[in-house]
Amino acid sequence: MSREIPLMVPPGGGAGIEPVKGRSLWIDAWNVLRRNRAAVVAGALIITMAVLVIVGPWFSPWSYDHTDWANTSIGPDWESRHIFGTDALGRDLFVRTLYGGRISLLIGVVATLVSLLIGISWGATAGYLGGRIDHVMMRIVDILYAMPFMFFVILLMVFFGRNIILIFVAIGAINWLDMARIVRGQTLSLKHKEFVEAAEAQGVATFNIIRRHIVPNLLGVVVVYVTLTIPQVILVESFLSFLGLGVQEPMTSWGALVNEGAQEMGTAPWMLIFPAVFLALTLFCFNFVGDGLRDALDPKDR
Amino acid sequence: MLRYSLTRFLGAIPTLLILITVAFFMIRAAPGGPFDAEKQLPPEIEANLRAAYHLDEPLVQQFGRYVWNLARGDFGPSFQYKDYSVTELIAAGFPVSLRLGGSAMLLALLVGVFAGTMAALRQNSRTDHAVMAVSMTGISIPNFVMAPLLILFFAVYLGWLPAGGIGDGGLRYMILPVISLALPQIAYISRLTRGSMIEVLRSNFVRTARAQGLPERTVILHHALKPALLPVVSYLGPATAAVITGSVVIEQIFGVPGLGRYFVQGALNRDYTLVMGVVVFYGALIILFNLFVDLVYAWLDPKVKYA
């Protein structure tokens, strides 16, 4: 976002005047966000979590499906190098939690991108074209909105097997509706804003208006929405895995681990507590960052 | 108002039809059939079975039959629970689910609105921060994580409450499931109430009411609460959907014999008719409830025009 702002030099004058460096929306937003300590800490935690989940398994002596027969169902223990303990099959819970995190975060990001792609194209098209096309497109969104999608996803999983690509697509396909509505509303209101009119009056080319005025303002909402969608998607995936409809054994995800833990919690509470803490912490952080971003990027509250 | 209600009601019918159609054809597109058993059935018997369940008819005719039966409240026979129709299973499970979900919604509304209003009245105070922190936790901890943790603490360690089942149907058995189901909704509703209440408290009519010397209590209860609750009313639709989906896992975790539990069992056993019956039933419920909420909203909010 630190692109040089192209200078308009008025013909026959203006030479020697130092341009005032404009403060872009993003710099403003960053300054507000930086002061929100909770959001910064949450953001740092998310990055730490992502790095840990990606890199961590390489440094562990165990693989996610290795069975350590000598140490089945033991609690957290440094001696045997199972720092989170093991499950009933002697699989190391630390590595499994990290692998589960990989799946959960991956699904969170990919499915959010899917919904972003559909949502932005649908919403921007409807908002930009307007008129009857807009009406029909939004009516379709309204109808789909009333659908109990969670049940459809469950149906899909039941009927067509538990396939990770299907999870991506299905979850992404649920979440684009909100995105489409938000983007459309934003495009509509931006089209008639004074600053767009001012730019038009000054003869700025349409493409530049869109680039400099519409898209940055749209992006703020989109970014906020993305940070709030990722935890929702992770939640949906965990929900499915919890029901036994998500990722297949021996691969795992946080939802599946919580499910296994819940069944053994009387005798092996660590199996519930570690994945639950990882899952809750991640959702917590994403929600905090999303909230912070909303405060930072929403011009209404300044 | 009547015309508005009527158009909205007619508008819900295509949604319902799409729901039924998609569910129906998804079930038919699924690989495998209900009679795939470990033991191969003799062809004559299988043919008889198919005829008994009308699976030998053309697809369109089957679809017509299904819709026609649905219209009369007949969801067809269950494939797994022999001798039971899906309608009977729904009739057995739904009252339990309704009691669970209804109590959770009621609790969420009462606590959520109260906490949100308190937070808004003392904005940036310690109360406010506490309410917001608790609500953030409620949003971030999914109910299927919260429920086992609650069981672990209150049932396993403290032994105060039963860990599952509905026993004699007493209140003791309902406490933990209702709380786990209500917590995320309490969180959302209190945040919504707080936000809109802060906005309403800044508005002119509240200032006028205060300037006229009305007691604070009257200002809040008679003037501010109704407009502040509008966002909460419009959230009731999604909230119901969330409680219904949530109750699927909660019933599973606590062993409550409700509709959600049948649904999960049906899904795992590939009891297609049962799964589909529950989807259609809950789907129709959500669609109708959304419609109802919209009507209530239109009735409450003078700014909505009945077009």
Quickly count the helices of chain A. 10
The oligomerization state is: heterodimer
* CATH fold-level name of the domain at 86-263 in chain B: MetI-like fold
Number of helices of chain B: 12
**What helical percentage do the residues of chain A reach?**
55-70%
General description of the model:
Chain A has helices at residues 25-35, 37-59, 93-129, 131-145, 149-160, 164-191, 194-201, 206-242, 254-263, 270-297. By secondary structure, chain A is mainly alpha-helical. The model of chain A has no long low-confidence stretch (mean pLDDT 76). Chain B is built from 12 helices and no strands. The model of chain B has no long low-confidence stretch (mean pLDDT 80). Classes of the chains: A mainly alpha (302), B mainly alpha (307). Chain A binds chain B through residues 143, 146-148, 150-152, 154-161, 231, 235, 238-239, 242-245, 255, 258-259, 261-262, 265-266, 269, 272, 276, 279-280, 283-284, 287-288, 291, and chain B through 12, 14-15, 18-19, 22-23, 26-27, 29-31, 136-137, 139-142, 144-145, 147-149, 151-152, 156, 241, 244-245, 248-249, 252-253, 263-264, 267-268, 270, 272, 275-276, 278-279, 282-283, 286-287, 290.
Task: Set out the fold topology.
The complex is a heterodimer of chains A (302) and B (307).
Chain A: H1 25-35, H2 37-59, H3 93-129, H4 131-145, H5 149-160, H6 164-191, H7 194-201, H8 206-242, H9 254-263, H10 270-297
Helix pairs in contact in A: 1-10, 2-3, 2-10, 3-4, 3-6, 3-8, 3-9, 3-10, 5-6, 6-8, 7-8, 8-9, 8-10, 9-10
Chain B: H1 2-29, H2 43-52, H3 59-71, H4 86-121, H5 126-140, H6 143-157, H7 171-201, H8 204-211, H9 216-228, H10 230-254, H11 259-268, H12 272-300
Helix pairs in contact in B: 1-12, 4-5, 4-7, 4-10, 4-11, 4-12, 5-7, 6-7, 6-10, 7-9, 7-10, 8-9, 10-11, 10-12, 11-12
